[in-house]
Amino acid sequence: TVLSEKPTTFTITVTSEAGENDETVQTTLKFTYREKYPDETPLYEIVSQENLDDSDVMDIIKLLEQQAEENLGMVMIFTLVSAVQEKLNEIVDQIKTRREEEKKQKEREAEEEEKQRFHGTPVTIENFLNWKAKFDAELLEIKRKKMKEEEQAGKNKLSGKQLFEMDHNLDTSDIQFLEE
């Protein structure tokens, strides 16, 4: 966009190529020709920017200074804009790389948490015996409660298996009955 004729002042908006998730970074550069242009560098500034950090803006300004000095004596606006375009594309790539690294780091942290979750107390003979004693006591307590509940509910009937286990005479009772 041409802003004025004397001195010639115009703006150019430079946008990076779309990155992951169609992300772009963008900047609008304002150029003003000096009297002795191209033997003298044009005046330039960044008028606006989107999705750029302050450090990125400073890098772009340094790049413009460097490119302007290297191209003294030549028409340089296209070269400056091209350099900024490449820099913006690099920034998008850096953002993508940074996100990938953050994602990998989160995955590593989640994996470490998972390992920590499954890493318990090492089993030794003493630990196992202590655990076994507690476990057996808990099972015995559960059985006692169950027996009390059954007695209170009047369900004190024994199963067939329990009857055979308690009275071994029942093993041969059917045979004796048939013989009689």
Automatic annotation (TrEMBL):
Similarity annotation: Belongs to the RWDD1/GIR2 family.
SMART domains to which the protein is assigned, alphabetical: RWD
Protein name in the entry: RWD domain-containing protein 1
GO cellular component labels: cytoplasm
Organism, as annotated: Menura novaehollandiae (superb lyrebird)
Region span, Disordered: 99-118
Keywords per UniProt: Acetylation, Phosphoprotein
A Pfam match: DFRP_C
Biological function: Protects DRG2 from proteolytic degradation.
InterPro entries, A to Z: GIR2-like, RWD_dom, UBQ-conjugating_enzyme/RWD, ZC3H15/TMA46_C
RWD domain boundaries: 1-91
Domain of life: Eukaryota
Biased composition regions of type Basic and acidic residues, renumbered to the chain: 99-117
